[in-house]
Amino acid sequence: MSEEDDREELRRELARREAALEEPGGPARVARQRRLGRMTGRERVLALVDEGSFVELGAHVLHDHAHVHETLAANRHPGDGVVAGIGAVSGRRVVVVANEPTILRGAMGHAASRKVCRALDLAKERGVPVVTLADSDGVRVEEGLDAVDAYGEILLRVARLKGVVPQITVVFGLCVGAAAYAAALGDFVAMVEGQSYLFITGPKVTKVVTGEDVTLDALGGPAMHARTTGQCHAVVKDEPSAIAWAKRMLDALDPRRPADDPVDRPTDDLASIVPVAERRAYDMKKVLATVFDRGSVLEVSDLFARNLVTAFARLGGRSVAVVASQPMYLAGSLDIDASRKGAAFVRFAGDHGIPVVTLVDVPGYLPGSKQEQGGILPHGATLIDAYAHARSPLLCLIVRKSYGGASVLSFGSAVRLALPTARVGAVGVDAQLEIELGPEPPEATAEEKAARAARREAFVREHGHGWAAAEGGYVDRVVDPKRAREALARALEALDDRGAV
Fold first, then answer.
1. pLDDT tens-digit profile of 347-402?
2. What is the pTM of this model?
3. How far apart are CA 301 and CA 140, in angstroms?
4. Which of 28, 109, 247, 492 has the CA that lies 20 to 30 A from 134?
5. Are the C-beta atoms of 142 and 72 separated by less than 8 Å?
6. What is the DSSP letter of 392?
7. Do 174 and 220 form a contact (C-beta atoms < 8 A)?
8. Are 365 and 371 in contact (CB under 8 A)?
């Protein structure tokens, strides 16, 4: 055979192996994926990253367990069920890991796990975010302890990366067992409606062990995790929407972007949004849309603990993490779930140097035996701890009220601003009257009612409004609602020392 023949053989072999990457589990399985309206793992990666930017690790890796089980012998495909590497999203570097569902339903074996470990190590070395596109049946049980040991290394790395680089997971299909733990150990999770499931133990094993009949949706569907556990931070309608969400999350973490929304834009409608009466409900999300850069608010966990809003936004082009009371639910009071939600969000922002802007309208922690027995004390304490240990700038705007222990939302801030509607105190005015005078009797005379009203007015004058808090030094400045955006932006500019665009 001539040298040219040798070269031609090498070209054919390269072409064959490159083609195998395009149909990872074989033509039939890829075709089935298409019929379901879903992408392969590689297609998901390429949809996420900038064109031509992805550098893959271990593209041709094969498992060496064909002798162990006939299933493994029949499924020895390039990449071994995982696409991993580094690329760019909107110009920013990111490590991407994607399960390949057409190969053994994305189950992870020893060779694939080693590849993922390399990718996670690279993320740590380069200090870049990790995006996992999950579609995995968990550990590849046919490989036994080899797979368990290798996946354990993944879990250790994911846990140790917490607080070091952001970790975002998008669940496209199954995310079971160890893969579910990896998602939970990360920072933010999105799930696709109608096709994503996140659980430790599936319905069949649950039935065998406990006798319980339970559906996939009830066990680990998007709605359950979004509303009940809080493990799902966003529910998206389809795969393109999932990719778009991941891109927007990565954009939100970019410290600064050029802004076309002037910081001195008057917030003319803020005064009409926020009622003076402290018990009247209003939608805090309207305040966010008014105060922050137009179109920049990206809410996280919008269906969980709805009495507290957590969102990323921009203020004068600077990325910020927003925590805001929501008077539309539980009057904005803090309960167990809101404390958990807020603590995780503030801790993430603090770990990654993202300034936290808190909009406060909180009547206190939610009382009652259910909350006390459920652990409001330890869970509430985690929120205090998150604010206390945040390594990023903290500033707040007291929109209407900040009462009792729930003032944790305001008391840790380096700069505290307030609207004229603000009231700050150990308890609300009406609660204070109850403590001092007891409940007003139905048969109270006009004189008694007048005396009670006078005491209420005196309490408000001495303790219960923003000017009293400002005069006492708790509030740094009471601002005109029309200038609230500008005041926050100037304070952020003074506190935020991240590099310019």
1. 999 999 999 999 999 988 988 999 999 999 999 999 999 999 999 999 999 999 99
2. 0.91
3. 31
4. 28
5. yes
6. S
7. no
8. yes
Place of tokens 């580094």: 86
- Do the bridges between strand 308-315 and strand 298-300 make them parallel or antiparallel, or are there none, so unpaired? antiparallel
pLDDT in tens, 116-174: 999 999 999 999 999 999 998 887 767 767 767 878 899 999 999 999 999 999 999 99
Please, is 67 exposed, middle or buried when counting C-beta atoms within 10 Å of its C-beta (0-12, 13-18, 19+)?
Answer: exposed
How big is the chain, counted in residues? 501
Do 75 and 107 touch, CB atoms closer than 8 A? no
d(CA 319, CA 170): 22
Query: Which tokens belong to 450?
Result: 């007048």
Say how far apart CA 209 and CA 414 lie, in whole Å. 52
* Whether the Cβ atoms of residue 197 and residue 216 lie closer than 8 Å to each other: yes
Residue 12 φ then ψ, to 5°: -65, -40
Residue pair 381/256 in contact (Cβ under 8 Å)? The answer is: no
Four-residue CA torsion sign, 409, 410, 416, 420: positive
Q: How does 317-353 read in b/e, with b if 16+ C-beta sit within 10 Å? A: bbbbbbbbbbbebbbbbbbbbbbbbbbbbbbbbbbbe
- Per residue, the 3-state secondary structure of 192-248, as one string, reads ECCCCEEECCCHHHHHHHHCCCCCHHHHHCHHHHHHHHCCCCEEECCHHHHHHHHHH
CB 336 within 8 A of CB 370: no
DSSP designation for 139:
B
